[in-house]
Design a protein that fits this description.
This protein is of the alpha+beta class. The protein has helices at 2-18, 24-38, 43-69; strands at 85-93, 98-103, 106-112, 123-130, 133-138. The chain is built from three helices and five strands. The chain has a five-stranded mixed beta barrel with strand order 1-2-3-5-4. α1 packs antiparallel against α2 (24-38).
Length: 146
């Protein structure tokens, strides 16, 4: 009986450490084997029950768990500024935490991707968005710039 309690605790510990539904199935199997032990089942039958319940719970519940754990990215209209070349309207200085650009007709707080200061009047390409800040890198002014 103690064996299955230890096995179950190990699988639950691994599950708690990974948080990805990696070993919970085997914890279910160990719990079923523990119940079989309490009912007087022989060790070979306990192993069979452990394997069967672990396998069945994995097959039955994994698809539901996979869907529940999927990160759903919600696109926003802000995504349309990615790759846009736009003018710097306020000097970009990551250390001072200052900087702004105008992209798609709106003024955005901006930070430099590489950490290099970018003076107002230069043009940058939007690399990514972090919260409400655009992460930008220097770019040559082109015909498609605002």
């Amino acid at each position: 009986m103690l064996f299955w309690i230890i096995v179950m605790l190990i699988f639950l510990g691994v599950e708690a450490a990974t948080v990805g539904l990696v070993s919970i199935w085997f914890a279910f199997g160990a719990c079923a084997a523990l119940i079989a032990t309490a009912l007087g089942a022989k060790f070979v039958l306990q192993i069979v029950i452990f394997l069967a319940v672990s396998g069945l719970s994995l097959l039955a519940l994994k698809p539901f768990a996979k869907r529940a754990l999927q990160v759903r990215k919600k696109p926003t209209n802000a995504d349309r500024v990615l790759g846009v070349i736009c003018p710097v309207t306020e000097d970009i200085d990551n250390i001072a935490g200052t900087g702004a650009v105008t992209a798609e007709g709106k003024t955005w707080t901006a930070r430099s991707l590489t950490g290099v200061n970018i003076p107002a009047g230069e043009y940058v390409r939007v690399d990514s968005i972090q919260g409400v800040k655009l992460i930008v890198e220097p770019a040559a002014r082109t015909a498609d710039a605002e």
